[in-house]
Amino acid sequence: MTVFPFNDDWAYRQPVGPFAGAFDGDAAMSAVRLPHDALRDEERRADAPGRGAGAYYPRGAYTYLKEFEVPLEWADHLVRLELQGAFRRAQIFVNEEFAGNRADGYARFFVDLTPFLAFGKRNSLRVEVRAGEDSRWYSGAGLHRPVVLHVDEPVHVVPDGISITTVRLEEDQAVVDAATEVANAGMTTQTVRVRTEIFNAGEVAIEHDVTPVTLAPGEQSVVRQRFYVASPELWSPDHPALYAAEVSLEGRESGVRSSFGIRTVTVDPRKGMRINGEKILLRGACVHHDNGALGAAAIGRAEERRVELLKAAGFNAIRAAHNPVSVAMLDACDRVGMLVLDEAFDMWTKFKTPYDYAAEFPQWWADDLESMVAKDRNHPSVIMYSIGNEIAEVGTPHGARWARRLAEHVRALDPTRPVTNGVNALLAIIDEVPEIVEQLGGVNAAMADGNVFSTISESSSATARIEESSSVLDVLGLNYAESRYSGDAEAFPHRVIVGSESFPSQIGRLWPMILENKNVIGDFSWTGWDYLGEVGIGSRMYADDADASGQLEREFPYLTAWSGDLDITGWRRPASYYREIVYGLRAEPFIAVRRPEYFGVEIVSPSLWAWSDSVSSWTWSGYEGKPVTVEVYADAEEVALLLDGSEIGRARVGEALPMMAVIDSVYRPGVLTALAYRNGIEVGRTKLATAGAAMLTARADRNFLRNDDSDLSHVAIELRDASGLLVTDSDREVSVTVSGAATLVGMSSANPATTERFDARTWRTFDGRALAIVRPRDVGQAAVTVSAEGFADVVLELEVSGTDAQC
What we know:
Layout: E1 2-5, E2 10-13, E3 30-32, E4 60-70, E5 78-83, E6 90-94, E7 97-102, E8 109-112, E9 121-131, E10 147-152, E11 155-169, E12 173-184, E13 190-199, E14 205-215, E15 220-230, E16 235-236, E17 239-240, E18 243-249, E19 256-260, E20 265-268, E21 272-275, E22 278-279, E23 282-287, H1 300-312, E24 317-320, H2 327-336, E25 339-343, H3 361-376, E26 382-389, H4 397-413, E27 419-423, H5 425-428, H6 433-439, H7 443-446, H8 452-457, H9 460-465, H10 467-471, E28 475-479, H11 485-491, E29 497-502, H12 507-516, E30 520-525, H13 574-582, E31 590-594, E32 614-615, E33 627-633, E34 638-643, E35 646-652, E36 660-666, E37 671-678, E38 681-689, E39 695-700, E40 704-706, E41 713-720, E42 733-740, E43 742-748, E44 762-764, E45 769-776, E46 780-787, E47 794-801
Parallel strand pairs: 23-24, 23-30, 24-25, 25-26, 26-27, 27-28, 28-29, 29-30, 40-47
Antiparallel strand pairs: 1-10, 2-3, 2-4, 4-9, 5-8, 5-10, 6-7, 6-9, 11-12, 12-15, 13-14, 13-18, 16-17, 18-19, 20-21, 21-22, 31-32, 31-33, 33-36, 34-35, 34-37, 37-38, 39-41, 41-45, 42-44, 42-46, 43-45, 46-47
């Protein structure tokens, strides 16, 4: 098998002509390197059909075009196109002949180009995609994940045809099976020898086997080989050891390589989840697929950076919400040591938005599950498959039939991993909610604990109606239904539960519940990383806001959900440090300060997805002598607050939230110190200092890049004083220019409500920060110049090295 990256030398435009997409016409063409999101650069409008769910982006339809040479020597080969994600309802044309299609915008799929190619000539490729009102979040549109060209001899290893599993772990060895699918597309019977070599992390061959297989014309067979790896390094989040299997057909072209990890996964209601026999609790982050300023483009380095930063913030697991995760992100999770709950669907047969996947689900569900499992089964980071999220049908008998069908199909494809489903019990019985609320004594009684989801989810009706669909799962995922944890342990003693979605503001209350209930294997917060769309669900709505309507989503120009522990630039928000303390991963207290301009202003319809409107800063020019609220997060009983060494406040921890103390004071510049006490003894301290005059700074996370489709440099632009303190109260316009062998592909701040464009070169900082994303385009030197009025320019030098030629 020969595999070519196929992401360069594309162009895109909007469809044109009476038969849209069939003719070039005079539509403007733009050159592009994939992965790419065409919708990102459209104009956002307050009257966009999808409104806040889609971040006020319009509908979009796009034509992607590429020409490429097809050598004459390929005439006796199979030529297939792998599209890792084309959003959405993609159609593929080769030399203007229809070659294939796919409904799901997140499914990886293959299209056989062979019948349509002109060998020894230049060929054309056209991909049509469209999106609009088909998601509850910002979806993007286009070839948002990589494209790969596969060229195979008639007898070949099938794409995705290698499956590697850990059979058992012993004291001195691991037993590993490799099952390889080999196909014969030729006209004669062939006998080939399948050679498989196992390499360790140091690229040393440690095991091999050679097996003959005879294939008649048109036949496909599985070759099974068993390996005994001595003294194996086991894959785990703390030790992500990787091996590689290289499979080749002796005497033929190059082989196929797949990385894997040696590890086992088990779950049970008494011992929880175990990786290699050791118990682990999932400290999980739900994540959407977009990459902030890149839109939906799943460029490898952006995916890797997200995984690295989420792990550094204390998470050990991500939940793909609500679609299969990209190959690039799975590769990163394997390398970094991040567990993955991989999710297939956000809907089955019932629509959530007017034009969503529900219309195609009955025809495509099996193919899409097969695609997900084939793509992901060799990734050790993937520990669980989810067949859905908040599926309305799970509360009906026929919905339970669907759940069983999906779960059993996944098990047939991969019996080594548990199957789950993210169940929102309230939505499953939505038709009964008015009656249940009345039985509970009205809306106020139902909202007694502030979480009507949880109150209704533990009702006897919810228990009865989700029982059958839950019984088909290995692990029941519960969204916002922690009230069921202890009761289900008694009522369903064999049921294993994961908190598949939870309010971020409640982790201080939820984590002790998870520690106490052996049947619960962890929690996934909504969300770990902020995302585009579902705008403002995590914002604080104040009484004097222009759109203070009490509605969950906010009005234009809101852009992001504003519910992530990390914002869209990757900066940790105060909630992230609170979570780290709750998890027991951080001993040092943390200080956050609520924005003083809102002191005493009423909050309208507070959202449980929201954290306080706070910043870790003691720099508030113009608020000297005015009241301010300080939050201190600490695993302690009491907190004292000092300003320049003099105590200005003291409070018990836990009155507002567990492990939080809230102190009202008056803002004065200086050094603010928080002391945490337990039993009257100091157990930790931290401080914030008022920043001085701002200076413009810029720092690239990578100064050496490869000229390929997966690499990026993220440039953090910050206003800092001479001592390095972040200056959060002096925001201004910052411009970025990139010259040489790279280009600026995205820029943003973390501002959740802005009309600024991701393709612009100027943004206003938000709380002292902005982010520029630079992508290589050639080999050589590149310069990134960051400028702002009143500051000296900052110039960063980047070096771009060569890589293998693209096709």
